[in-house]
Design goal:
Helices cover 55% and strands 0% of the residues. The chain is an all-alpha fold. The radius of gyration is 20 Å and the shape is globular.
Length: 206
């Protein structure tokens, strides 16, 4: 390799950064994972690809769509679990941070089911969402919602049949819309979950 290129590249990098400063940079990066949305966050901020699309969606954004939508559900679980267990301000950090016992999406689903935040059907729906999210996150080949394996798992999500009035009239045979709409509804209801509130909708989280 041309030594002139190496010298030019090194001049643009901060090679004198200490280990402590490096750890701080990574800590700041990890904190972005806990910049949670609130109940007042606009839907188009949570789901930038839109909840309702009059035209067919561009499948080149399927990976981003899956990751963003599923992250909303995971955050909703965190909020609902923390609200159910205690009112401590540091609950989220203790439960969901790097060393937290519920740092894993699967662990959050299981805990939400154990303590009664979600029922068996909704837990199964969120497991399907998690599986699709993982496939998009880790697949080395390009995949889409139309990919047979992805579509088959999206079709396991039962929320559209259980709550058709809340689903905006989506087509049940469209895996992409089934996934997006289900994620949004679950995120919204989990984010607003209050165990002692009578208005809580138990059927949606059955």
């Amino acid at each position: 390799m041309d030594s002139r290129f190496i010298g030019d590249r090194e001049s643009k990098l901060n090679l004198s950064i200490s280990s402590k400063e490096r750890r701080k940079l990574f800590d700041n990066l990890r904190k972005l994972s806990f910049n949670d949305a609130s109940a007042d966050t606009a839907p188009n901020e949570l789901f930038p690809y839109g909840l309702i699309s009059r035209q067919p969606r561009d499948r080149q954004y399927d990976r981003e769509t899956a990751l963003i939508a599923a992250t909303g559900v995971e955050q909703g679980l965190e909020c609902a679990i923390a609200a159910h267990l205690c009112r401590r301000e540091d609950a989220s950090k203790l439960l969901f941070a790097d060393e937290g016992v519920l740092r894993d999406f699967n662990a959050k689903i299981k805990m939400a089911y154990i303590i009664g935040v979600v029922g068996k059907k909704t837990a199964a729906d969120i497991q399907a969402i998690r599986g699709v999210r993982n496939a998009f996150a880790h697949a080395r080949a390009v995949i889409y919602f139309e990919t047979p394996e992805v579509k088959a798992v999206c079709n396991l999500i039962t929320l559209p049949q259980r709550e058709p009035m809340t689903m905006g009239g989506i087509e049940f045979n469209d895996a992409r819309e089934r996934f997006i709409q289900s994620c949004f509804r679950l995120h919204l209801h989990l984010l607003c979950y209050q165990p002692d509130r009578e208005a809580h909708n138990p059927s949606l989280l059955d």
